[in-house]
């Protein structure tokens, strides 16, 4: 059962820490978008290289939350609140946030924290991680029922950094920025956003300040690093472009579409403006104008897979299923291994409700699933595809995994039991179902 447990532990380590932010009054989820994630990765790459890390082993994950926060929960994943991305004004500021979090990884802060969080059994570790995730969202009642200790202590132990760690991450991060040709002054600019936060009571502070201690002395030191590592005359056009794409698309989907259309105007024909107008019109909804804008973008960038993917999304959500399949197929041809693009293609194929579409959907969704463990929507579609192919055991397993990574372990256990009854005893799927049952049992005994 070791292989199955290693698989499921990895899923929960990456997913529970973000996807189970489910306080009763404020549910938080991940925002998954291929274009936004790719854009942020382009900003991260030079910083990771400067830190001596492999950028391909890191991922940037967006939490849908208006508050300002960023954190790392393992040695592979950097979590950014959507509110923070929309608050920042430049690519350099975004890279300053990324460099600071990368420094926590490179300096071993997270590795030491994970060693301290180890428990005797893997199922117990899963329960502890779940509690930490809930604690990070501020859901104290739920978090303390699963993990040992209160939500606040879990957050301090696992997510909070000491002032010594923050100082080390600031200095390392500034050095990485300078090596990458990015001015460390942007780090001081980011900290200026949070000035005065420490004087507020805990409930009014942005969570960044609660997990990243801020002080006048820290800001003074960061300004000193900026003076010590000057970067002059660097070409920031590429970084600025990708930041504009990431923030522009995020804002277009989260903010009022009328606001977006007023902000962008009608004359701007840049890539970002065309994309933002396409999203805003789609959300109104106005499919005709949305398709006009996205077609104009595709005329400018015919080999951009994200333009074809966005067209597929607009068509699919406008119930033009055949055209959506064609648009997604073009995106897959341009980016054949991107799990989110494959997932959209599979969803469009399922919408056809034909035997051939179902078969092709299952293939695309299986390929996407092998590359992405952080997508409950993908698991939902995969369960449908399995069910339509008559593989009910695999359908139940996919449903169980979807509930597990969104923190609904009681529901996950129901489907895991069904999967374990249908799948061959000892098979990889059966073992994964057993791990879900073990996690649910552990969580239940800790409540």
Description:
The protein has helices spanning 2-19, 34-50, 82-87, 91-106, 109-117, 122-136, 140-146, 151-159, 163-179, 185-193, 207-211, 216-228, 237-254, 257-264, 271-283, 287-300, 305-317, 321-334, 339-352, 355-371, 376-388, 392-405, 409-422, 428-446; strands at residues 22-23, 26-27, 30-31, 59-63, 70-72, 77-81. It is mainly α. The chain has a domain at 2-228. A hairpin with a 4-residue loop joins strand 5 (70-72) and strand 6. The protein is globular, with a radius of gyration of 22 Å. Mean pLDDT is 82; it is low at 1-8, 10-27 and 118-158.
Give a quick account of the main beta sheet: strands, pairing sense, barrel closure.
4 strands, mixed
- Straight-line distance between termini: 26 Å
The chain-level mean pLDDT equals 82
Low-confidence segments, ≥5 residues, pLDDT <50?
1-8, 10-27, 118-158
Using the CA coordinates, give the radius of gyration: 22 Å
Number of extended strands: 6
- Supply the helix-strand structural class: mainly alpha
Count of helical stretches: 24
The strands making up the biggest β-sheet line up spatially as 3-4-6-5
**Helix share, percent:** 55-70%
Order of helices and strands: HEEEHEEEHHHHHHHHHHHHHHHHHHHHHH
Strand content: under 5%
Shape by Cα distribution:
globular
């Amino acid at each position: 059962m070791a292989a199955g447990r290693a698989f499921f532990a990895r899923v929960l380590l990456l997913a529970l820490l973000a996807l189970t932010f489910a306080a009763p009054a404020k549910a938080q989820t991940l925002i998954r978008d291929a274009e936004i994630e790719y854009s942020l990765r382009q900003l991260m790459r030079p910083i990771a290289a400067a830190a001596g890390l492999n950028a391909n082993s890191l991922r940037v994950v967006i939490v849908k939350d208006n508050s300002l926060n960023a954190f790392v929960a393992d040695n592979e994943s950097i979590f950014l609140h959507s509110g923070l991305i929309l608050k920042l004004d430049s690519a350099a500021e975004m890279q300053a946030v990324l460099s600071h979090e990368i420094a926590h990884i490179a300096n071993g802060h997270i590795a030491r924290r994970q060693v301290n969080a180890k428990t005797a059994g893997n199922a117990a570790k899963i329960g502890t991680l779940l509690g930490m995730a809930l604690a990070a969202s501020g859901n104290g009642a739920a978090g303390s029922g699963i993990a040992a200790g209160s939500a606040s202590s879990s957050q301090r132990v696992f997510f909070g950094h000491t002032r010594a760690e923050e100082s080390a991450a600031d200095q390392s991060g500034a050095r990485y920025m300078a090596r990458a040709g990015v001015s460390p002054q942007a780090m001081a600019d980011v900290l200026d956003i949070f000035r005065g936060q420490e004087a507020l009571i805990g409930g009014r502070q942005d969570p960044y300040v609660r997990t990243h201690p801020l002080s006048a002395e820290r800001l003074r030191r960061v300004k000193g690093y900026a003076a010590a590592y000057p970067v002059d005359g660097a070409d920031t056009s590429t970084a600025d472009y990708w930041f504009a794409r990431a923030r522009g698309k995020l804002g277009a989907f989260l903010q009022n579409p009328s606001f977006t259309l007023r902000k962008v105007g009608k004359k701007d024909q840049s890539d970002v403006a065309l994309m933002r107008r396409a999203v805003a019109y789609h959300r109104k909804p106005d499919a005709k104008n949305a398709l006009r804008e996205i077609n104009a973008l595709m005329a400018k960038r015919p080999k951009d897979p994200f333009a074809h993917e966005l067209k597929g999304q607009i068509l699919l959500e406008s119930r033009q299923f055949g055209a959506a399949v064609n648009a997604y197929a073009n995106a897959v041809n341009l980016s054949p291994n991107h799990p989110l693009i494959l997932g959209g293609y599979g969803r469009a194929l399922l919408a056809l409700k034909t035997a051939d579409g179902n078969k092709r959907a299952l293939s695309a969704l299986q390929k996407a699933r092998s590359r992405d463990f952080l997508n409950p929507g993908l698991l939902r579609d995969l369960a449908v595809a399995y069910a339509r192919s008559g593989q009910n055991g695999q359908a139940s397993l996919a449903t169980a995994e979807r509930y597990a990574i969104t923190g609904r372990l009681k529901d996950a256990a129901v489907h895991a039991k069904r999967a374990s009854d249908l799948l061959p005893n000892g098979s990889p799927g059966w073992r994964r179902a057993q791990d879900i049952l073990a996690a649910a049992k552990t969580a239940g005994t800790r409540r």
